[in-house]
Design brief:
With 220 residues, the protein is an all-alpha fold. Helices cover 75% and strands 0% of the residues. The N and C termini lie far apart (84 Å). It comes from Nocardiopsis sediminis.
Length: 220
């Protein structure tokens, strides 16, 4: 009796083949024949899981790429500023596998410029990423005097930074170095924070704390 194969495992195997093909030869090189050669599956088997066209394979692989990027493990700091650095560091492609997946995702993004269906999928992910960055930044600047419009611009700046990491890595033959990513993001976030003065609430809180400390010393 033939061994039963989990369809989800088989589809993931096909997606990995598509990612490797794009990383090696570009998105336009992906065909059912090349996927079959990479996986050892018959073309008929691939069609069994995805239908007769390559388009469903490509859309499924895009979904896999976005899910993997969202599921990457990260140890998050309790400090809001450090948390931004942690998020950027785990999102940047710093391993060989992440490098290949990032190349594939960048090629998908270029292809989406003229493909409305792919564009809709990618736009939804980009909006979610922007919201996450804005939320993290709001926490990190909670004690700073910054208007909502300025917060929005700074979030766009950080989004441009992470996209810069993505595109520069895609054009390179090697992944980014985690220490470099962490150092760049740390310096950027610190400069951003220093650009805004403490809020009135933060100043009052600091003055109250200093007064309480002075009273404690005088009674000691």
């Amino acid at each position: 009796m033939p061994k039963r194969v989990d369809p989800d495992v088989r589809r993931e195997q096909v997606a990995d083949a598509v990612i490797d093909e794009i990383a090696a030869h570009g998105v336009r090189s992906v065909t059912l024949g090349r996927i079959a050669a990479r996986t050892g599956l018959a073309i008929g088997s691939i069609r069994h899981y995805f239908g007769d066209t390559i388009r469903e394979v490509m859309r499924f692989t895009l979904g896999v790429l976005m899910q993997r990027a969202a599921r990457r493990d990260a140890t998050m700091s309790d400090d809001p500023l450090t948390r931004i650095v942690d998020v950027f560091t785990f999102a940047a492609p710093t391993s060989e596998q992440e490098h290949r997946e990032n190349i594939a995702l960048v090629e998908y993004r270029v292809m989406a410029r003229t493909d409305p269906e792919l564009a809709a999928d990618i736009a939804a992910t980009s909006l979610a990423a922007e919201e996450v960055i804005r939320s993290l930044l709001r926490e990190a600047l909670a004690d700073r005097a910054i208007e909502e419009e300025a917060l929005h611009r700074e979030a766009l700046l950080l989004l441009a930074l992470i996209e810069g990491f993505s595109f520069s890595s895609a054009l390179s033959s090697t992944p980014l170095h985690e220490t470099d990513v962490r150092a760049v993001v740390t310096a950027t976030v610190q400069r951003l924070r220093d650009a805004y003065p403490p809020s009135e609430k933060a100043v009052e809180g600091a003055a109250g704390a200093a007064e309480a400390a002075g009273e404690s010393r005088s009674h000691g």
